[in-house]
What we know:
Layout: H1 24-36, H2 43-46, E1 51-55, E2 58-61, E3 66-69, H3 72-75, H4 84-96, H5 106-118, E4 127-131, H6 136-151, E5 155-159, H7 168-173, H8 177-180, E6 190-193, H9 205-220, E7 229-234, H10 250-260, E8 264-268, E9 292-295, E10 308-312, H11 331-346, H12 349-368, E11 374-380, E12 383-388, H13 397-409, E13 412-413, E14 415-417, E15 423-426, H14 434-456
Helix pairs in contact: 4-11, 5-11, 9-10, 12-14, 13-14
Protein name: Aspartate aminotransferase family protein
Organism: Natrinema longum
Family: Belongs to the class-III pyridoxal-phosphate-dependent aminotransferase family.
Amino acid sequence: xxxxxxxxDLHFATEPSVDEVPGPNSRTLLKRQREIDSNAVAYPxxxxxxxxxxxxxxxxxxxxxxxxxxxxxxxVLNVGHSNPYVLEGTQEQLESIAHTIDFPxxxxxDLIEKLRTIAPGGLAGSSNVVFGGPSGSDAIEGxxxxxxxxxxxxxxxxxxxxxxxxxxxxxxxxxxxxxxxGYGPLLADAVHVPYPTRDAGAGGREACERCLDxxxxxxxxxxxxxxxxxxxxVEPIQxxxxxxxxxxxxxxxxxxxxxxxxxxxxVDEIQTGLxxxxxxxxxxxxxxxxxxxxxxxxxxxxxxxxxxxxxxEDFDTWGPxxxxxxxxxxxxxxxxxxxxxxxxxxHDLLSHATALGQxxxxxxxxxxxxxxxxxxxRGKGLFVGAEFVDADGDPDAxxxxxxxxxxxENGLLVWNAGRHGNVLRLIPPLVLTRDQAExxxxxxxxxxxxxxxxxxx
Length: 457
């Protein structure tokens, strides 16, 4: 028997309903925010809207406009906004006890046991979980400590195009210069090597081998220029880098290099985990067992903050207090994560994400046939990227912004990604219905055609 309501019953509506955007109430709140909030605020600059409530894959602003959400809080809300089955559990837990540090609770132990069950490859049933701080960056920090502690080495290896967070250690692995400027020096023992992108011939064996050779040299070349890394940190599909799916054999090649050099392979599943790609973890698409995976975002079930790392039990060499964090006992978030997993299982949302994601990519492929600016459509499950260039073949971030604005004006929220900001990133909740997908893609495809045509005039 399915838990919670059907995905058809989670939303405000199937279609968006938009009048004036931003409306007068949104303009008032946006103005108040600009006067007192941090200059670091980013999203309202591109999508000027003030939010009031949300259900499923729909969001309503303070003026009553209803939007389809193809963004899901950067992949946080895999089972949708305010999922009743998840909320019921988190509210019950809040009324019982919320902050538990690392004392055992049913919520904590049940979530760990469930994560051990759905863990990728050989981690299933042979892994332990550590909770630290309440974000993905905190999970990455814990993984850096774990690798250094188990290998006795200090070097860390990441990839060009990577995003792992913005705390000091995580930012050392994040590749984007815009995040780093003015904050150096960070960890001096961090090195970045190429990730196989479209420009590098992603999908081809030659590109895969070139990138793997660059990794291997950092471990084995006597004049490689850096300390031998303690581990390799990799997104199984790059998110911020532009929804880049690596070629077959890439992750296995990293696994082999790590094994040959007594290093750890840490896979960042913060954005791709818990059903986003049609598998519990994107690593499952590549039949590779990492030594550790980092999680956050959708792990809180309904947007509650929680970060965690699951790693093979052989690496659990910490003593008491070996990794800590004040908020490592967020019991409502743990219930939220458990209930979100149960909801995904009960409603077969892995298969749903696979089928619906293919539909989104098929619709984009149709547009690409008559829109030369759309040069690549890629992704797995409901993790979809569409890359755009200008008439000279150069990345066209302006076109992506124009498409995004048109979508917003017509009631669809989408976001961008990519090293040059020229990739549309679609990461809707897994509870998006087929009807909503069709409506949303009609809006998006019309926006692409209109914006591309306008740009050539």
